[in-house]
Design brief:
Number of helices: 10
Strand content: under 5%
CATH class of the largest domain: Mainly Alpha
Number of strands: 0
Distance between the termini: 97 Å
CATH topology of the largest domain: Tetracycline Repressor, domain 2
Largest sheet: none
Order of helices and strands: HHHHHHHHHH
Radius of gyration: 22 Å
Shape: elongated
Helix content: 55-70%
Structural class: mainly alpha
Length: 200
């Protein structure tokens, strides 16, 4: 009996292809966050991000389409704020400062977004959505007054974004030199006052 050796088996995907894809996506997003944080939105390029990730620029385009799509994926920030109802009332400010320090020192998403938001309208709008959808609802749980809650949330944001700007973007030496316990001790009472004190 003759065997038709010209009939090859159909190719099958390598079992580790999904793993390689996930690894590539992770490398692209990490490189993008670092590049957006360092250069801002306008100066960051797909070519530079691909070089940092060690891949061809066409791969970045394949996964994310363009720089806007890549930026949206790289800075999909979830603040994962604690439930204020589960916290001691007198320690809410301190807890929020410590929580944001962990975010700032995490994967770089918020730092990249802060740098871009200061110079780019799309980045600024994303920051505004985070304020409206994530921070403001938490502040409303602490201080439900419909007129005061937005103002108090804005004051909280001013402190936390100021911390991020001076310590992680501008890297002012005195701000960088502070240890986390000092920052919590300094800013915790300020946030506590913004959130819980009577209107001045």
């Amino acid at each position: 009996m003759l065997v038709d050796v010209t009939r090859a088996k159909p190719p099958t995907a390598a079992p580790d292809a999904p793993r390689r894809s996930a690894t590539t996506r992770t490398a692209i997003l990490e490189a993008a966050r670092e590049r957006f944080a360092a250069d801002g939105y306008e100066r960051a390029t797909i070519r530079a991000i691909a070089r940092d990730a060690g891949i061809d620029p066409s791969m970045v385009m394949r996964y994310y389409g363009n720089k806007e799509g890549l930026f949206a994926a790289a800075v999909a920030v979830n603040l994962d704020l604690p439930d204020p109802g589960a916290l001691p009332h007198e320690r809410i400010g301190h807890t929020l400062v410590a929580h944001f320090l962990r975010i700032w020192e995490g994967d770089g998403e918020l730092t990249a977004l802060l740098r871009v938001g200061a110079t780019n309208e799309a980045g600024a709008q994303r920051m505004q959505r985070i304020f409206q959808e994530q921070l403001l609802p938490v502040v409303r749980q602490i201080h439900p007054d419909p007129e005061q809650a937005p103002v108090r949330a804005a004051l909280v944001a001013s402190q936390l974004l100021g911390l991020g700007l001076t310590r992680y973007v501008l890297r002012l030496p005195p701000a960088v030199a502070l240890d986390r316990e000092e920052i919590v001790a300094w800013l915790g009472p300020t946030l506590q006052r913004y959130l819980t004190a009577a209107h001045p």
